Amino acid sequence: MSEVDNLSIGYAPYSSDFSSSGDRRRFVYYANSRAIDFEIAKPENEYDVVFVTHGADITVWSKYDKSKAVIVYELVDSYLATPVFSFYGLFRGLAKYLSGKHKYCQLNQKKSIESMCRRADIVICSTEEQKNHIRHYCDDVRIILDVKSEYHNYRMTQQPELKNNELNIAWEGVPHNIKSFAVIRDALSILSKQYQINLHLITALKYKKYMNKYVTKHTINEVKKYIDINNVYLYQWNELTVSHISSACDFAIIPIDSNDTMDNGKPEDKLFIFWLMGLPTVVSETPAHLRAMKGAGLSMACSSTNDWVSTIKDIVDNKTKRNQSAKKGFAYASRVNSEERTISLWDDLFEDIERFHNPRRRRRLEVNKQKDLSLTNLSEETGETR
């Protein structure tokens, strides 16, 4: 990594204090692990490399002079899969401009994303489906999942015995995604007639709506809207809480509305988090979930109420199957999303940045050399000294 030490690196983050999960689990984590120096990127400065997150002002960075730097753009959600005339496509850009998050007004946010992908030399995404969309705008697209080292597996080797016909079920995520429980509302209702269901939701207890800025909402109101189960426990999200609460549960669930283009295109990151914590996990049938289940040799992805009911009953009533699903999931996630493997993908990216970077740096040095030479000649002609 000696060549990296000579690079001037700017980073346009999700959050200025790097508290966002996108900062903690991706570039910032990698840079810290490799002792790579960087600064928060400013468009008026020149860099050898700029990492632009989707939380940055892409209306500015998409216009960044092509000769100035290698641009790596991080686009880990399925924004390009959304219809052009969707609410997101038509009004998100305007909302970002009016809120001050974007300097320039691009009414259609999807167009801004396309422009940023065209400007980027490399785009990082999280699924094959995202990669196929991005390839229309950028030739070099990499799939790199989040580092999961902030979570811990506190479970014993064997799955715990179920107590008094109770099911303790874990879910974690942002409050906005609680709406996905509508997908399994009927399944939970059916199961609650046979079991006492305790839902443990690790999330933010309050959140900002409308550009994550303007109106404070209480998560309990989302729970009341989408979940009919009586025993719902809310926990303020943090890494240790996720690890402790999840590890104490019998299994985890990840319901997703497959009719929602953005949600259906999500990666398997959350599934891997639960697997790495030793939890059997039942999920909605999405492309990423199906790939992960196939890779692990499991069949716990559901597309209907009957699927959810039968899959949950199967692992509840069969401890051996519960143990096997936890072990297979852990083994697969440990293999394909280990910290070592993820770090190696970032190493590969930096090696390829050198391939992009060196010609530009040479050109820039040559331009500066020519400027210095011209000034020297001018000084000699006028008899001035520099």
CATH top level of the largest domain is Alpha Beta
- Helical residues, percent: 40-55%
Instruction: State the helix count.
Output: 16
Reading side by side through the largest sheet, how are the strands ordered? 2-1-3-4-5-6
Shape: elongated
CATH architecture assignment of the largest domain: 3-Layer(aba) Sandwich
How much of the sequence is in beta strands? 15-25%
Describe it for me?
The structure is a single chain. The protein has 386 residues and is of the alpha/beta class. It has two domains: 2-148 and 339-373, Rossmann fold, CATH 3.40.50; 166-336, Rossmann fold (3-Layer(aba) Sandwich). The chain is 44% helix and 16% strand. It contains 16 helices and 14 strands. The protein has helices at residues 21-24, 27-33, 58-61, 87-98, 109-119, 128-134, 185-191, 210-213, 219-226, 239-247, 261-264, 269-276, 287-296, 305-317, 319-336, 339-382; strands at 9-12, 39-40, 49-53, 70-74, 122-125, 141-143, 166-172, 196-203, 206-209, 215-218, 231-236, 251-254, 281-284, 301-302. The strands form three sheets. The protein has a six-stranded parallel sheet. The chain has a six-stranded parallel sheet with strand order 11-8-7-12-13-14, sandwiched between helices. β7 (166-172), α7 (185-191) and β8 (196-203) form a beta-alpha-beta unit. α14 packs across α15. The mean pLDDT is 88.
